[in-house]
Write a sequence for this structure.
């Protein structure tokens, strides 16, 4: 069995290579939040390796993991917002003001819906702090899967393909998240000992696969972004027109307390 230290070191090397490639290819300018997420993952791995080698007590490691997961979750949410906003890049000028806030709100609502579902497979022997970590981690794992499925399902309408950075990043996150969910389901069957730890290491190996996929994808040239499909463009224009009409009505219309009243 591969040691945890070796897996962490290989992950750190993969994250370093991914970061260096993103900077060299100019991906940092387009996806700064995603680059920050990879940089944070690298720092977290190095910190975890330090704690592992210095054999800190379980409580200290759990506190570190809770802080790390909280920051990681915030960055993950920001990455999903960044990807969704980047997908709309060809039509941003036609969108109403506040569209970015709508994206944030929709993702927050999706996360709130997923939150109670994420706690269903929680082991019964967890401490309250472990329960918070588990539910937070599973919520964002499921949110990444949903985001990936929505993006791939609507890729034709959104006019994105496998050579677009948005779908490449979402695919890496989605595949790794699916592997994480599968291991969570297997954990719920109460495997113990080496079998339990092997499954955790399988998640780490799937993450290495994700890093390898990103490195391979970022080495290829990104294709020029296509225009949106007529159906999607019409929908966005109607949405934008509707929002503008609503603003004009509220701005130039009669006071709200006069609506429906006769003089």
């Amino acid at each position: 069995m591969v040691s945890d230290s070796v897996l962490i070191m290989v992950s750190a090397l993969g994250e370093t290579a991914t970061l260096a490639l993103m900077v060299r290819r100019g991906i940092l300018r387009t996806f700064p939040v995603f680059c920050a997420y990879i940089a944070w993952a690298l720092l977290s791995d190095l910190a975890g390796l330090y704690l592992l080698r210095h054999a800190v007590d379980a409580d200290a490691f759990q506190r570190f993991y809770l802080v790390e997961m909280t920051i990681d979750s915030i960055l993950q949410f920001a990455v999903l917002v960044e990807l969704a906003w980047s997908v709309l890049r060809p039509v941003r000028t036609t969108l109403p003001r506040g569209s970015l806030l709508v994206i944030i709100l929709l993702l927050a609502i999706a996360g709130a819906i997923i939150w109670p579902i994420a706690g269903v497979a929680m082991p019964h022997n967890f401490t309250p702090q472990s329960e918070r970590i588990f539910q937070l981690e599973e919520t964002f794992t499921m949110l990444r899967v949903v985001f990936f499925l929505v993006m791939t399902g609507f890729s034709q309408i959104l006019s994105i393909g496998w050579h677009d950075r948005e779908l490449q990043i979402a695919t890496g996150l989605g595949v790794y998240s699916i592997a994480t969910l599968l291991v969570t389901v297997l954990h719920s069957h109460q495997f113990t000992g080496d079998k339990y730890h092997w499954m955790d290491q399988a998640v780490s190996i799937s993450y290495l696969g994700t890093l390898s996929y990103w490195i391979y994808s970022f080495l290829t040239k990104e294709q020029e972004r296509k225009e949106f499909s007529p159906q999607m463009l019409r929908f966005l224009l109607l949405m934008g027109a509707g929002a503008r009409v609503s603003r004009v009505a509220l701005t130039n219309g009669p006071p709200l307390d006069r609506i429906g009243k006769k003089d």
